[in-house]
Amino acid sequence: MKYRKPRIGLVTISDNREKAHNELLPVNKQFEDYVVNTIHKRDDIELVVSETIVHTAKEAVEAANKMNAAGIDGLIMNFTIWVYPNLAVILARNIDKPLLMLSNLHPEHAGLVGMMASAGSLDQLGIKNYRVWGDIALPEVYERVVSFAKAAAVVSRLKGSVYGMFGGRSMGMYTGVAEQSVWMKKFGIDCEHIDEMEILRNAELVDKGRIEKAFQWMSNNIGKIHYNGAGLTEEKLHYQIACYLATKDMVKERELDFIGIKCQPEMGNHHITQCLTQAFLNDPYDMEGEKDITVVSCENDMDGGLTMQILHLLTGLPTLFFDFRHYDTENDVFVFANCGSQSTYYAARSDDYKKNLSKVQCFAQTPEFYPAGGATIRYMACEGPLTCARLSRKDGEYRMVIFPVEVRTFPEEKMKETSNEWPQAFIKINVTPEQLIDIYGSNHAHAVAGNVVNELIKVCDMLDIKPIVLK
Q1: If pLDDT is split at 50, 70 and 90, which confidence band does 172 have?
Q2: Which of 126, 146, 274, 470 has its CA 20 to 30 A from that of 98?
Q3: If pLDDT is split at 50, 70 and 90, which confidence band does 308 have?
Q4: What pLDDT, on the 0 to 100 scale, is given for residue 161?
Q5: What HEC string does the chain produce?
Q6: Packing angle between helix 302-315 and helix 139-158, nearest 10 degrees?
Q7: Is the peptide bond preceding residue 107 cis, with omega within 30 degrees of 0?
Q8: Contact assessment for residue 38 and residue 102, using Cβ atoms and an 8 Å cutoff
Q9: Is pLDDT above 90 for 108?
Q10: Helix axis angle, 302-315 to 180-187, nearest 10°
Q11: How far apart are CA 358 and CA 352, in angstroms?
């Protein structure tokens, strides 16, 4: 899967006094090289290193301009000796990116002193900064640097991105709608509204041979397709594929970074459900080969889609869109389901799409809710750790609930206890269900593989969002 590493600048700051700067230049260079070589060796960050060790105001401005031109996601200010704190302030005022103050621990030199004086100066000006000190080769120190870099990349890459809104509010859900001006002001995200009819119009224009090839790929790779002559027929599946390919093409043509599709009730009542789109755009593959992941939010849930985009930018992985369907008291697990689709990657969490799709079955959509029909993407999520999260608003203020979980599996029959035709995950949380439900601000949950709790906390802090961590 494609993952774009954080692009982080590094500027070493020095003493403004010419004699001190010149005499300690070898020390500055030695520790800068140590930091750079350690980061390069681990290869988690794309590092942009300043050509100059900054010791004058003019050099600080020039370094900032070069970092801006390099398109960095965040900046590390490196402190090895005592520095003039005004240099850090000038640098920070000319770079509108997250800032990390980094100092080695060395008793012969006053790097920590310089860092604290500089960080305190930024505090006085209201410039947010993060601090890491110690030997960067130590895992606990290095991981804090990487955690900052990943969070900074998320915040940086949200700015200037475009959310494609296919349709408006779905089924009366206030939680699915966000104020566009707030998104631009807080996150730097533009919202492009596109009528759902554009999906249907463009579906008619998709090459029939392309649709047939995709149909054969699904027929050969999906574990089982349960045609029933009504809600799910070959004709309806062809139509769903056409809608998916049309939406995929529009995402590329309109340069959309992530999208939401209203779907309900119009598509499900009168045309076809958009479950294939929700599955395959969120996947790193489809019937046309490997591809970039495009986050898709069901029911045009804007804050849900934004949560998923943050999780994706942090990890490069597919993300999940769930409903809080049920709490199983006997097995102490939540049943998180989706009303028809989710990324097929989580059927087996394999880099081989064939292994994932072999565990997927397609059923006809639930007729009482979706009379127009269409195929669902049904599977039981495989075992493994997830980080669940959700952006929501309480009295207009954003917050994010974050909770690490484990996915459990059960015999296939258990899926019939809720909606057998829908994808499901059995979620074991680390707090009581009351603790989660009492503070949670939506019916939707979102997740990504692994544990990114610390990174999400940093993202929230950078965006002035309250994190609520349950673990």
Answers
A1: confident
A2: 470
A3: very high
A4: 99
A5: CCCCCCEEEEEEECCCCHHHHHHHHHHHHHHHHHHHHHHHHHCCCEEEECCCCECCHHHHHHHHHHHHHCCCCEEEEEECCCCCHHHHHHHHHCCCCCEEEEECCCCCCCHHHHHHHHHHHHHHCCCCCEEEECCCCCHHHHHHHHHHHHHHHHHHHHCCCEEEEECCCCCCCHHHCCCHHHHHHHHCCEEEEECCHHHHHHHCCCCHHHHHHHHHHHHHHCCEECCCCCCCCHHHHHHHHHHHHHHHHHHHHCCCCEEEECCCCHHHHHCCCCHHHHHHHCCCEECCEECCCCEEEECCCHHHHHHHHHHHHHHCCCEEEEEEEEEECCCCEEEEECCCCCCHHHHCCCCCHHHHHCCCEECECCCCCCCCCCECCECECCCEEEEEEEEEEECCEEEEEEEEEEEECCCHHHHHHCCCCCCEEEEECCCCHHHHHHHCCCCEEEEEECCCHHHHHHHHHHCCCEEEECC
A6: 140
A7: no
A8: no
A9: no
A10: 20
A11: 10
Report which of 73, 26, 31 is spatially closest to residue 48, judged by C-alpha positions. 73
77 and 13 Cβ atoms separated by less than 8 Å: yes
What does the pLDDT look like over 85-98, one tens digit per residue?
999 999 999 999 99
Domains of the chain: 7-158 (3.40.50.10940), 163-469 (3.20.14.10)
Phi, psi (degrees; rounded to nearest 5) at 455: -65, -40
Q: CA-to-CA distance for 454 and 197, rounded, in angstroms?
A: 41
Mean pLDDT of the chain: 97
Q: Kindly indicate the confidence band of residue 227, based on its pLDDT and cuts at 50, 70 and 90.
A: very high
Q: In what order do the strands lie in the sheet with 7-13?
A: 46-49, 7-13, 74-79, 99-103, 130-133
Does residue 314 come out as left (phi exceeding 0), alpha (psi in the -120 to 50 range) or beta?
alpha
In the chain the first and final C-alpha atoms are separated, in Å, by 29
As a whole number of angstroms, the distance between CA 311 and CA 122 comes to 29
Record the pTM. Answer: 0.96
> Looking at the predicted structure, is the pLDDT value of residue 250 above 90?
yes
Residue whose C-alpha is closest to residue 267's, from 207, 179, 339:
339
Tell me the pLDDT band of 107, cut-offs 50, 70 and 90.
Answer: confident
* pLDDT value, residue 106: 82
Instruction: Give the model's pLDDT for residue 1.
Output: 79
Q: Is the confidence at residue 443, as pLDDT, over 90?
A: yes
